[in-house]
Amino acid sequence: MVLAAQALLDKNAKPSLEDVRWALSGNLCRCTGYARIYEAVLLAAQEMAE
């Protein structure tokens, strides 16, 4: 999942929530809800932009 998120951010520095959902759609996570993962990717994009 981390590699998929990094690949997304490499291609799209300002992804939308829908972009993040699509990029991570091939990954399954049983440990948590996806909302926090999506939020983390969006936060990483903001941090990388600064």
Task: Looking at this protein, list some descriptive labels.
mainly alpha, DNA polymerase, domain 1, single chain
Strand content: under 5%
What number of domains?
Answer: 1
Shape call: globular
H/E series, N to C? Answer: HHH
CATH class: Mainly Alpha
Care to give the gist of this entry?
This protein has 50 residues and is an all-alpha fold. It has a single domain, classed as DNA polymerase, domain 1 (Orthogonal Bundle), CATH 1.10.150. The chain contains three helices and no strands.
Structure overview:
The chain is an all-alpha fold. The protein has a single domain (2-49), classed as [2Fe-2S]-binding domain (DNA polymerase, domain 1). 68% of the residues lie in helices and 0% in strands. The chain has 3 helices and no strands. It has helices at 2-11, 17-24, 34-49. The N and C termini lie far apart (23 Å). The model has no long low-confidence stretch (mean pLDDT 93).
What is the fold's blueprint, element by element?
Elements: H1 2-11, H2 17-24, H3 34-49
